[in-house]
Amino acid sequence: MSAPSRTVEQVPVTTLADGHRLGLTVHTLRGAHDGPHLALVGGIHGDEPLGPETVRRILATVDPAELTGTITAVPVANPLALAALHRNTPLDGLNLNRVFPGNRTGSVTEQIAAVLCEILADSTHLIDFHSGGNFATVDYSYLHEAGADMSRAYGCSLLYSHDSYVGSATDWALRRGANAMVSELGGGGQRIDHYLDKGVSGATNVLRTLGMLPGSPSAPPVDQTIVTTLTVIQPRVGGVLLSEFGADQIGKSLAAGTVLGRILSPYTFEELEVITAPYEPSILVLTRESMTNVAPGDYGFMVADGATARPA
Ligand SMILES: [Zn+2]
Question: Is 156's pLDDT higher than 80?
Answer without folding.
Answer: yes
